[in-house]
Amino acid sequence: MHNLYDNSIAGAAMIKLEKRPQPSQFWSLAAPIVAVMLTMIFGAALFAALGKPPIEALGKIFWEPLFGEFNFFYLPQLLIKGAPLVAIALGLSLGFKAGVWNIGAEGQYIIGALCGAGVALALYPMEARWLIFPAMLIAGAFGGFAWAMIPGLLRVKFGTNEILVSLMLVYVAEQLLASMALGLMKNPDGFGFPGSRNLSQYSSASSWIDQSNGMHWGVVIALIGVIFAYTLFAKHILGFQIKLAGQAPRAAAFSGVSPARLVLFCLGTSGALAGLAGLTEVAGPAGLVSIDFNVGYGFTAIIVAFLGRLHPVGILFAGALMALTYIGGDVAQSSLGLPGAAIQVFQGMLLFFLLGVDVLTNYRVSMKQGSVA
Amino acid sequence: MLRRTLLASAAATTMLGGVVMADGHGPTKLGFVFVGPVGDGGWTYEHNQARLAVEAEFGDAVETVFVESVPEGPDAVRVMTQMALEGADLIFTTSFGYMDQTIEVAANFPDVRFEHATGYKQADNVSVYSARFYEGRAVQGHIAGHITESNIVGYIASFPIPEVIRGINAAYIHAREVNPDVEFKIIWAYTWFDPAKEAEAAAVLIEQGADVILQHTDSTAPQAAAAAANDAGGRIYTFGQASDMPEFGPLPRVSSIIDDWAPYYIARTQAVMDDTWESMSTWDGIGAGMVGIGDISDAIPAEVKASAEAMVTRLAAGEYHAFTGPINKQDGSVWLTEGETASDYGDDSLAGMSFYVEGLTAEIPQ
Q1: How far is A118 from chain B (nearest CA, A)?
Q2: What is the mean pLDDT of each run of 10 residues along chain B (366 residues)?
Q3: Quick check: B354 and A192 CB within 8 A?
Q4: Contact at CB, B160 and A288, closer than 8 angstroms
Q5: CATH architecture, range A53-338
Q6: Chain A residues with CB inside 8 Å of B122's CB?
Q7: Is residue B93 part of a domain?
Q8: Where are the beta strands (DSSP E) in chain A?
Q9: Do residues B191 and B308 both lie within one domain?
Q10: How far is A330 from chain B (nearest CA, A)?
């Protein structure tokens, strides 16, 4: 078998991938940068093929929101768009490092939002921010945590696959969301239309700190999360155990790491963070529980986590970059008439190239004169 | 507050630009916020056709921009604000879910005019407009009641909001009128545009015995699913939704409801140019041309086609209202007495309709 494999590689092409003994430090850092550059090059080619000025399109996407005439408006929007991505991706990165695959952050995000909004709507119109908002935060975090515990406990007790269970629970959460927006949480003053009361206009429940600058509690939570996760991996034994469990599960088990505890910790933390992101979104930028409240942050955060190399600071930058492509993408659409699908392809390229270039982190490319098979 | 001031100053810049335009040096700028892709073949497609009609009408005097597939949340706020900042004079927000966002952005840009489709919240610079699609649904129901052989009509619904519920009621009332045994099976897709989901819903309905499929979603996927079933020896009828979808005629597509926004968009653009624009609420039907009934194909019996066309004429002339009593609510209580027609606004009105009529067996999802 081994021989056959060697021959086929050598015979097919002269390029050979050799596994590195250690992942390359250089490529680990360079891969995202190379991926972004490749995306820009191929994106520009795509835009040119569509008959749009490529350099100008890239400028609209990457330059305009940051330094353009209206950046006073776009910069706060970066915070709004980036905060949930960063918060969710941070949680996911814990699990991804440990080999625990929470694909259902979107569902945990929804349930967190519903639990937090539920608290506020139940207490409406009481004016007691000191009580209501903290209670919403707790409920939001708990909601996401509890929803993530379903795949967590099922995996620990019955060995089910958390990828499938967490993903399927997204659809359950979406149905619950629709039910709440149409029934229990429907605005009684809304003429029968679906959707709850507007929480961002309810002073005891609003997650806005300074709306003009895009500051809301979700941004604060994302930033605290970065510091927390950084400390966890840099200083804390638990952070080491998480990494060990991902890289060498048997070694981790021998050194006394309880796999069950680790699974529950990773899923629970990512669920709670996703729940908090959902709650701060529903009580701020989104404002109300509506049927289509969720717009895919939970899935996009998976890309953000990998783009950020599962590193807290990396995730911060990756979240900002992803947010930039969304905001700049809309600018390019409206000012250059680029089709929406082209922007989505552009974002997809980013992940595609990252995964492609990432091969170099773990493999070395060598050109060899292959022996004739 | 900071944002308000900044935006106000940006709006002032826009106004200065507006002065220049009044001198004839610059075009009137229109922004369109779309919920789906312009290539959906249905709802957004027609709004985009109307945008193109405005361009054709005014030529260089207008400049239009649009953004597709904008989610109905904070993203919509950003897109609208961006259009306003970039100097739009009039912004069309073309989905119900943009309602609160339109009001929010409009408050920040008092000098920009907004037109929100299918909503109910107005402001000094926000108009609302919608079409009486239910008139078209009445015609569909009439045809469906006649041509169904299984007596099962499938209905792919999007969201349980009044507009969609009105459509189901209007179709059902007129199907039952000509066929007392007809039964409606309703699937809620919870999306306006998702070809995969819509195709699946159509397949499920066909499996459950439906031979007529009505849709309140925006893609042509249900048409394609029905066409495939017909290729396999079935006989399924469909109706084009929002757009004519003629490529699926004469079978399965036997007729359609066409949204024609072009006259309205042109009129509103003209009003901005003449500086006569005012906030108003428009709700037009077949008569005003906002709702069109696509060509009824010869795949259905000639007498059904004739009676359907007669109904279109009566609806257009205002001789017949699609909701004329006696009609009871699903729970058996009286909604409209003999000869009474439904009112647009107020209690139990069309605008906020949240109940089924008697005879429908499904429940509105809660």
Answers
A1: 16
A2: 41 41 69 93 93 95 94 90 93 92 93 93 94 96 97 93 93 96 93 91 96 94 95 94 90 94 96 95 93 93 96 95 95 94 88 91 84
A3: yes
A4: no
A5: Orthogonal Bundle (1.10)
A6: none
A7: yes
A8: 15-19, 208-210, 215-216, 363-367
A9: yes
A10: 7
